[in-house]
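Bug #77: duplicate submission created two jobs. Keeping one. Sequence:
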Amino acid sequence: MERSRHDFGNFNRLPDEDARRLLTLLEGRIGEFQAVAVNEQVPEGLHTPCFRAGLARLMEEHPQTLFLVDSRHHSDAYPSAWLKLNDSEALRLCGMGEEGGLGRERVLAAARSLFRKRARPVFITRGARGILLWDARGPREIPGLRPEGAIDTVGAGDSALAGIAAGLACGASADEAAWLGNLCAAVTIRKLRQTGTATPREILESARTAVPERQIDLADAPQRARFLPGTDFEVAEELPPDFRPTHAIFDHDGTISTLREGWEGVMEPMMIRAILGPDAEKAEPGLFRRVQERTREFIDRSTGIQTLAQMRGLVDLVREFGRVPEGEILDMHGYKEIYNRALMERVDERRSRLERGEFSPEDFTLKNAISFLEWLHRRGVRLYLASGTDEADVKREASALGYDRLFEGRIYGASGDVAHEAKRQVLERLLGELGPEALRGVVTFGDGPVELRETRRLGGQAIGLCSDEKRRYGINPEKRSRLVRAGAQILIPDYSRLDALTALLHL
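Kept job's structure:
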């Protein structure tokens, strides 16, 4: 919940004489502006009754200038303006209250009511859910953008307003302006402990790399899941009817292999100890719970990116809580070494028992995973393995499990360079080799969001593995939400239903 702001402006009140002078100056130059953004977040300050009345009159008398209003307390004072407001404000403005929640249907109803009453476009920001736009063309939902790493939402609404206003002033459509607003907000929330800003260069980079959050309302409502008849395959979005895979990309851990099952249980305590410092055992319970919750949220959000990037995020968390002196904070490579040492004790022990014949590859792979890989390979589908784990380890583990030969050398992993994201680079390499049209024949299987988001961004198809890595078959419901958000069109628990899966792929 957002607390009351502590702005000095709360204690100021603009004299009426100054309000009229300010409005006169604005009116004298109104012809120079394609758009005017009005941002109000404190009940008094600049936005006195005199100023509001004069500004509303200006809007009426100068319809050639677009006014975009983001007003926490006085949106109804400007009937001629386009509105930008958040979901809570939209519900309050319509007299609906927040008691019934901020679900999609209620926000849609509020947007419809506001547009019908005002006959002006309405932009409703919904946090990670993006922007709901309602204008003469009806409702459209502009998806939010999911960043990697830690976030700080301070200033995100202001950045969205600035992006929307700038887009409209340049002649962009309402949809394009909303998308620009999302891009600006996505830049801002990655700037921690500050009211972030977004430069043109940062916005362009965000446009190049950002991937939209998809179907968040479905992701948060498992009771709405729709299944392929006779199967436990959830259909979040239909695959194209003429789709037939020519190239298949697989994540490794949790998608094929379970050698690293339980890595979260290694990473979480390691991160908590790093954040709390040498006195971690003495931390008071409230602080420990806050650190634990923050750590779990970060691990869930960063699942699928390379380990080094996760450790870079850990450095930010250590600084955020301020329990470790700056001179004692390790860099991302130092924290990765600590984590890898703990994890590899577990992995090496499992691999040794596999090599001694105490276990078989089927004991450390999802049900029917190897059979499915062999089936695809026999049908001429080119297979790629792309992982956030170090490349040497991925190759060693795929070899120990006996399916490295099926990938014919196309195995990629982390290289020690945080800018080198194997999953993204495999897809972009395919884009360069095949072209955008042929990329429609690419399907990616993964249990983490990175590979699925990147695939959908570039036009491929995405199948999410809601895998229970302990049992190696069946559904882990905790994975479902993040995979739907990442763009998984089909969600499967494992590869046990080869008949249904091959039919789904039209092979």
